């Protein structure tokens, strides 16, 4: 733009969560609902469809997964997916560090580490692409824990 005005936000902007805190909070809210479905704990008030947080189609991580601050994200994505069991699971995409600079420029933020794409009409093409090309996240130990069945003791004796 020649007069220094900011370009209009694209329509998909309403379907994006930006930042570690915002994405983690949304995933935690969805995970709390999942815990109710699994019978892990109950709360006095169950969420209705109107109060239930919107389903996340994908989480994009722009940092290495082995950084301690991000190690909870795979488990949160898995449990948050269970809040909307009728929808496809959340996909987790770890992007190369070189992508951050382009994301920072595109979003106008000083730093970006995590971005979540919410389900929505504006994001349907990106969502379809991600679901077609990114595998569903598996967290085997969490599945076993949710089943709550006795696995027995296994001791290796040499």
Write a concise synopsis of the structure shown:
By secondary structure, the protein is an alpha+beta fold. It has helices at residues 20-38, 73-81, 99-107, 124-133, 140-147; strands at residues 16-18, 56-61, 91-94, 114-118. It has one domain (12-147): 2-Layer Sandwich (60s Ribosomal Protein L30, Chain: A).
Question: Any overview of this molecule?
Answer:
There is one protein chain. This protein is of the alpha+beta class and 158 residues long. It has one domain: 60s Ribosomal Protein L30, Chain: A (2-Layer Sandwich). The chain is 35% helix and 11% strand. A four-stranded mixed sheet has the order 1-4-2-3, with helices on both faces. β2, α2 and β3 form a beta-alpha-beta unit. It is globular and about 75 Å long. The mean pLDDT is 80.
Order of helices and strands: EHEHEHEHH
At the fold tier of CATH, the topology name is 60s Ribosomal Protein L30, Chain: A
Q: What kind of sheet is the major sheet?
A: 4 strands, mixed
Number of domains: 1
Radius of gyration: 18 Å
Q: What fraction strand?
A: 5-15%
Q: Looking at the chains present, what oligomeric state does this protein adopt?
A: single chain
**Largest sheet strand order:** 1-4-2-3
Low-pLDDT segments: none
Number of helices: 5
Q: What is the number of strand segments? A: 4
So what's the CATH class? Alpha Beta
CATH architecture descriptor text: 2-Layer Sandwich
Judged by helices, strands and strand pairing, the structural class is alpha+beta
Average pLDDT level: 80
Overall morphology? globular
């Amino acid at each position: 733009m020649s007069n220094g005005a900011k370009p209009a936000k694209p329509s998909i902007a309403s379907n994006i969560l930006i930042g570690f805190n915002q994405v983690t909070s949304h995933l935690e809210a969805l995970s709390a609902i999942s815990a109710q479905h699994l019978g892990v704990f109950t709360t006095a008030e169950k969420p209705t469809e109107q109060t239930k947080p919107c389903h996340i189609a994908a989480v994009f991580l722009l940092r290495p997964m082995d950084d301690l601050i991000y190690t909870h994200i795979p488990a949160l994505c898995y449990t948050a997916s269970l809040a909307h069991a009728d929808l496809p699971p959340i996909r987790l995409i770890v992007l190369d560090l070189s992508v951050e600079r382009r994301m920072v420029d595109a979003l106008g933020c000083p730093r970006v580490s995590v971005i979540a794409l919410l389900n929505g009409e504006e994001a349907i093409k990106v969502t379809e692409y991600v679901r077609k090309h990114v595998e569903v996240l598996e967290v085997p130990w969490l599945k076993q824990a949710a089943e709550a069945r006795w696995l027995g003791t296994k001791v290796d004796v040499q």
